[in-house]
Amino acid sequence: MSSGSGRGFFVTFEGLDGSGKSTQIRKLAAALEARGRAVTVTRQPGGTRIGDRIRALLLDSKTEAIDPMTELGLMFSDRAQAIAEVIRPALEAGRVVLCDRYTDSTEAYQGGGRKLGSDVVRRLHKTICGGLDPDLTILLLAGFERSLARARRRNDRTASAGRDEGRFEKEDQDFYRRVHDQYRRIAAREPERVVVIAGDQKIEAIHQEILALVESKLRAGTRKSK
Hints:
Elements: E1 9-14, H1 21-34, E2 39-43, H2 49-59, H3 68-92, E3 96-100, H4 103-113, H5 118-128, E4 136-140, H6 144-160, H7 173-189, E5 194-197, H8 203-225
Parallel strand pairs: 1-3, 1-4, 2-3, 4-5
Helix pairs in contact: 1-8, 2-3, 3-5, 4-5, 4-7
């Protein structure tokens, strides 16, 4: 893996809310476990006791007046805890880690959406994450209008289920355009790591594409380690 600190394999999933990340992570985890792989699934923000408290603060639509730099700091505080408590131990144990969002989300949402820029995000990543980069990032990205409509529908579903995680979905279309465009720039900048998968295919077709990609990467990693 990129960090050089274990035998595991680190996969992150990115995209706007409603892109189908959660569904694809569940399906991939089940498929890999059926093939005998040890899998750890986590998410950001969240995934630890501290992270879940940060998540509740960041995503609750009733949370107001968070300065963009405060928001950025909270995202990386959550990430530092997740790396220490979940991600690095799992990788060192040789597990496949599937993480719903990582630093690319921060660069897209805070760097792009909040207009903080990429440089501050990438500097914090280098300092706080200690060089722990994903081995593979799967970016589920449909066209902008479709992605935005899905994000709105996802917020309606979570609200009706009694979970208020709609603070970001209250942002306007210009915000989401900046997020979407920043994701595209990240993918263009790091094509070896980031694989863009069209998010407007059927769920099973996307799953099969992701599974084939991950299995290929895992086989290549196994050959390299011999």
